[in-house]
Prior knowledge:
The protein is of the alpha+beta class and 425 residues long. It folds into two domains: 2-195 and 367-390, Gcn5-related N-acetyltransferase (GNAT) (Aminopeptidase, 3-Layer(aba) Sandwich); 197-366, Gcn5-related N-acetyltransferase (GNAT) (Aminopeptidase, 3-Layer(aba) Sandwich), CATH 3.40.630.30. The chain is 38% helix and 24% strand. It is built from 16 helices and 16 strands. It has helices at residues 11-16, 37-43, 53-63, 101-113, 144-162, 174-177, 182-185, 206-213, 215-230, 241-247, 250-262, 272-282, 319-325, 327-341, 354-360, 377-390, and strands spanning 2-3, 25-29, 68-75, 81-93, 119-125, 136-138, 166-172, 189-192, 196-199, 234-238, 286-293, 296-306, 309-317, 346-350, 364-366, 369-374. The strands form two sheets. Strands 1, 2, 3, 4, 5, 6, 7, 8 and 16 form a nine-stranded mixed sheet that branches. Strands 10-11-12-13-14-9-15 form a seven-stranded mixed sheet, sandwiched between helices. A hairpin with a 2-residue loop joins strand 11 and strand 12 (296-306). The protein is globular. The protein starts with a strand and ends in a 35-residue tail after the last helix.
Amino acid sequence: MYDENGVSALAVRTSALGFSAQHLSEQVWLSANEIDAEAWEQVRLPSDSSLDRRLLQATETSLGPTCQFRYVLYRDSVGEPAAIAVLCTFEVDIGVLTDDPWARWILDRLRHISRKLVTFRIHFCGLPLSGCESALRFAEGADTTAVLKRLDQTMRRVAREDRVKIIVLKEFTDAELTQLKLLEALGYRRADSLPTNLIHPNSGSFEGFLHELGWKRRGKINVSRKKFTANGLRLVTTSDYSTIERLYTPETHQMYEFVFQRSATKFEHLTREFFLEMARQLGDSCEFTFAMEGDRVRGFVMSLWFGREYRSLYIGYDESINEKSHVYFNLLFQAVANGTQHQASTIDLGQNSDYVKHVKLGAVQARRSMYVMAVKPIAKWVITNFFDQLFPAHPFFGEANTTNGTSEFLAPETAATSGSAGGLS
Length: 425
């Protein structure tokens, strides 16, 4: 842990705007084990899964070799916690940021010349995972303007230390944006991340959720569930670590690898150890649903639940039987069932696969935003000239032309892990 109270080169500019962060002190930890738990929990809400120290430790243990973590606490002038944030630095192929065909074509050509031309070291305020929330929290009554100015100073300093080309603050909800307007004055540009798909059960029960879907959706769901059971499959949900360790074999992990490789955007690439560490660290807050054929695993979905929120993060399945057994959809559907059983008021099904989640399960979409700033000359040129291509607008499902050439309830053509800049696919 170390303390840093210096003023960045941006101080003159921000002082001219009338902002001051000098009354804030800063503490930075390089390991989640070192975090001042009492101070951290004064800011983090009990239902906040993304900044749970167990999740941070699991992520750090699994991704530490490729990612530099910093956990930041800001205190006000009387020493009370004002804000917390998770910062991380790692290399990203900037091709994962775009779905623009022309930009992808250009980046592919550059990649063939040298991967260094498209691989940028990026400093994030946010976890190195997709499908999570933002990683910045303010204490109630905190001076958000001062915190943001100080955070900007911190991130610029770390960017110099880590020799990064781009700074990104990611995965903010629309409700959070009102507190973040200063970022644009500080030189950041807002961009769309992928929208996430949410279900808000009104009845508080799984039976009530099915009733809300309407008879047409229920009929199609029943067809898919019958296909699943008729082919000898069953679903097993567990938080027991020994069971998860036994079933989440290297062969099971290959199902995640299959989905990852099909992803159009590959943000993080996770190891088997990551999934086991999540189960070990988070205990009953982490559960796996396995699609079983006898003793053989044919698919899985990993989910987290805290308070009234249930979040499905990663999925994998055996493609060879998916068409006849609808494994993908049944795992997704079971995640909703599990969420209602936990009395969740919000079930987050993540990003991508919008057709299945919106049309078949009645999910509504919620926008996610990020803020981007280039800090090196080449990166500044790329961001300035190709911002709209690298960070295109992401309309909600139905707001743009949508094609789906697959059968109902099958995984869509661009099925991806939540490693596609955002949640379960």
